[in-house]
Amino acid sequence: MSTTMGDGTRAVRAGLPEPEQYEPTLPGPVFAAHFHLSGEPVGPYTYGRDTNPTWTRLERAISELEAPGETAETTVFASGMAAITAVLLSQTRTGDAVVLPDDGYQALPLVREQLEAYGVEVRTAPTAGDAQLALLEGAKLLWIETPSNPGLDVCDVRRLVEAAHGAGALVAVDNTLATPIGQRPLELGADFSVASDTKGMTGHGDILLGHVTCRDPGLTAAVRRWRKVVGAIPGPMEAWLAHRSLSTLQLRIDRQCTTALTLAEALGKRAEVSGLRYPGLPDDPSYPKAVRQMRRFGSVVSFVLADRETAERFLAGLRLVDDATSFGGVRSTAERRARWGGDAVPEGFIRFSVGAEDPEDLLADVERALDEASR
Ligand SMILES: *Cc1c(COP(=O)(O)O)cnc(C)c1O
């Protein structure tokens, strides 16, 4: 699709087949463990763990969003973690070194243990200050998560990519928080754009899914081979629902990002709120980097309340915001992140995911719950 097209237009048309008389615009899910196949076993669709036409359409759609006007290929997975481990485990061998963030997604320490069990050296540094730069010598792969989750720090992707490529390392970016309409890692030079599509990408809190997008056909082949070997494949129904959800990606994310900024501004005026973070706030430490590489700043706002009890009272007092983990959905959610353990955050730390509610309703609910919690 053309690069000059707007994000909303691209989202509603992404991955659609050429119009065919009497066929639906987005053909329904193809449920098939195997396909009719006589003679030599070649062709696009042979066995359901290798390929499926519903995945193909979704993969084309995601590629158009991740790399408009370029040739890139996407591989979809059963979850974000399936996509993440497909890159890390297909690209590394015993004796290789990998650089991870030490403040990224909470399952990365488990991935680290697995990599180390296979004899891969794992080095970690914070996202902020581009601290991973110092660990690149001799590394095989640099893994970046920006904005980081849940701390919302941002690193300079172009700068890290340049240094990593100079050191002979590949670069993967976890783009879950931004989604491809918020940030396009391949355009910033990364080799892999990876995401959990469980979050903002599908946006309804009802599917688990993940993807990997690459420009290099060799890297795509390795990732596809990994999917085939491990079998971490999405169901056709999930893939179809995800594709259907992409048509509203720009509408949802625009609304959520605009309200997130409004909420962050309102929270900034509250005396009981400290440690407020939103990459789109001009005085946020992430802003100078975010503004150079992001096109939208995401739907997640984080802040700290006095203590665990105040945070719990705040969450219990919210009526329009569900106390739940995950983020990026059309219904706002918030949680006290320290309840999970593992993240280096204070007891009163709240990760707030802004949904598509009317901003006035959401702000009124938050202000009231804050008043009540601090009383
Ligand atoms: C949720 C999340 C993941 C894991 O995705 P699943 O779909 O739950 O497997 C990975 N990275 C980030 C940044 C996430 O938020």
Automatic annotation (TrEMBL):
Q: Report the protein name in the record.
A: Cystathionine gamma-lyase
Q: Which InterPro entries match?
A: Cys/Met-Metab_PyrdxlP-dep_enz, PyrdxlP-dep_Trfase, PyrdxlP-dep_Trfase_major, PyrdxlP-dep_Trfase_small
Gene3D superfamilies with a match to the protein in the record: Aspartate Aminotransferase, domain 1 (3.90.1150.10), Type I PLP-dependent aspartate aminotransferase-like (Major domain) (3.40.640.10)
The top EC class is lyase
The organism is: Streptomyces finlayi
GO CC, one annotated term? cytoplasm
Is-annotated flag, keyword Signal? Answer: no
Positions carrying N6-(pyridoxal phosphate)lysine: 199
What UniProt keywords are attached to this protein's entry? Lyase, Pyridoxal phosphate
**One of the Pfam families matching this protein, by short name:** Cys_Met_Meta_PP
Its needed co-factors are:
pyridoxal 5'-phosphate
